[in-house]
Design brief:
With 115 residues, the protein is mostly beta strands. It has no helices and eleven strands.
Length: 115
């Protein structure tokens, strides 16, 4: 079992920044990837960013150039630095971890971008 705990969400003005963190614990061997998804009310959950074990990253088109995913392997933590935030970034952000072909999810952290 893998447990994920997100933090760092909150209310920010358009153009502002937030840094999300996700700490993983438990049976975390054979980690394939860690990433972030988000879900706004009435919409499907979508991939925001992912970082592979080798360090390769991928981003949703909406996040490219504004968001950066990174990790601290020693602390089993993944981060999402979000800059130039827009109202359309408002969503519940979920951390996920792919371990041995099993996908684990955190409880989510709310990000609200509004003036």
């Amino acid at each position: 079992q893998v447990h994920l705990v997100e933090s760092g969400g909150g209310l920010v003005q358009p153009g502002g920044s937030l840094r999300l963190s996700c700490a993983a614990s438990g049976r975390i061997s054979n980690i394939v990837a860690m990433g972030w998804h988000r879900q706004a009310p009435g919409k499907q959950r979508e991939l925001v960013a992912v970082i592979m074990g080798a360090g390769y990253t991928n981003y949703a088109d909406s996040a490219k150039g504004r968001f950066t995913i990174s990790r601290d392997n020693a602390k089993n933590t993944v981060f999402l630095q979000m800059n130039s935030l827009k109202p359309e970034d408002t969503a519940l952000y979920y951390c996920n971890c792919l371990v041995s072909n099993k996908n684990y999810w955190g409880q989510g952290t709310q990000v609200t971008v509004s003036s």
